Amino acid sequence: MEKMNLSSYAKVNLYLKVLKKRSDGYHDIETIYQAITLKDNIAIRLIESNNIEIHSESKEIPTDATNLAYQAVLVLLDRLNIRCGVRIDIDKNIPVSAGLGGGSSNAASCILGLNKLLRLKLNKKEMLDLALSVGSDVPFFVSSYSSAVGRGRGQILKRLRNIPKFWFILICPERKISSQEVYDSFKLNLTKKKPDVRICIRALKRGDLTEVAEAIYNDLESVVEDKVRQIHEIKSVLKDEGIKAILTSGSGPCVFGILQSREEAMQIKESIRKRQKNWAIYVCCSR
Predict the structure, then answer these.
(1) pTM of this prediction?
(2) Calpha distance 75→244 (Å, rounded)
(3) Residue 223: which CATH number?
(4) 202-241 tens-digit pLDDT
(5) Going by C-beta distance under 8 Å and a sequence separation of 6 or more, which residues neighbour residue 140?
(6) Shared domain check, 239 and 263
(7) What residues act catalytically?
(8) 3-state secondary structure string across 94-111
């Protein structure tokens, strides 16, 4: 029985502007993806049956056809007319429905893993096409870029280089929220003045967190804050700890603060933990 183990990394959005709603129901966006070291562990096995099996000890993720990893395997096998069985084991560490792209990352890992396991020799464009048919964030994870600007649905990617290493403290509210729920509630405001993505890129490359704090942006943040009131408390706590650059990631509701060092991030984590023992707090860095 052939097997492959993969690391399936999360992301944060350092910038997200919604441009318009498309005729297919999706939205055109402009975003800055940043891969982070928080990860799930994925094991892919070929099995004798022709079934697709999803296994996980986590009770928070589906193990049926609604799982994005299942959908990624199904799309790949169908498109290439391959008949085989696949078992996916997901060791879940990335918070679910948090705006961190865990499901999309799992799907990308399946595409990348099966390409090697089945010796398919798919090129990057072929894998990106498969990825987009599964989900809007999946192409970023298939690209294996550390940082990138995403346009269109997020699939038109331009790699960003020379972004310094940042540390992140992530705090996830108990309330889960789907990206569809957030986008369905979003009302496009064309008159609102928004930061320019180029300013954000320059600030990130300089590594000055005062500049970064002014430049990071998320169009969806106000929608998520209205639905998850705990976000206000989390942001207030992070500000009290002296963090300047704070944002909700993607469609949320996970909130992150950006820091320069692991030591600082760990100190703040321990400080918050003393007051908020039940909060889900993670420390990680950019990849």
Answers:
(1) 0.95
(2) 43
(3) 3.30.70.890
(4) 999 999 999 999 999 999 999 999 999 999 999 999 999 9
(5) 11, 33, 35, 101, 104, 108, 148, 150, 154, 155, 157
(6) yes
(7) 11, 137
(8) CCCCCCCCHHHHHHHHHH
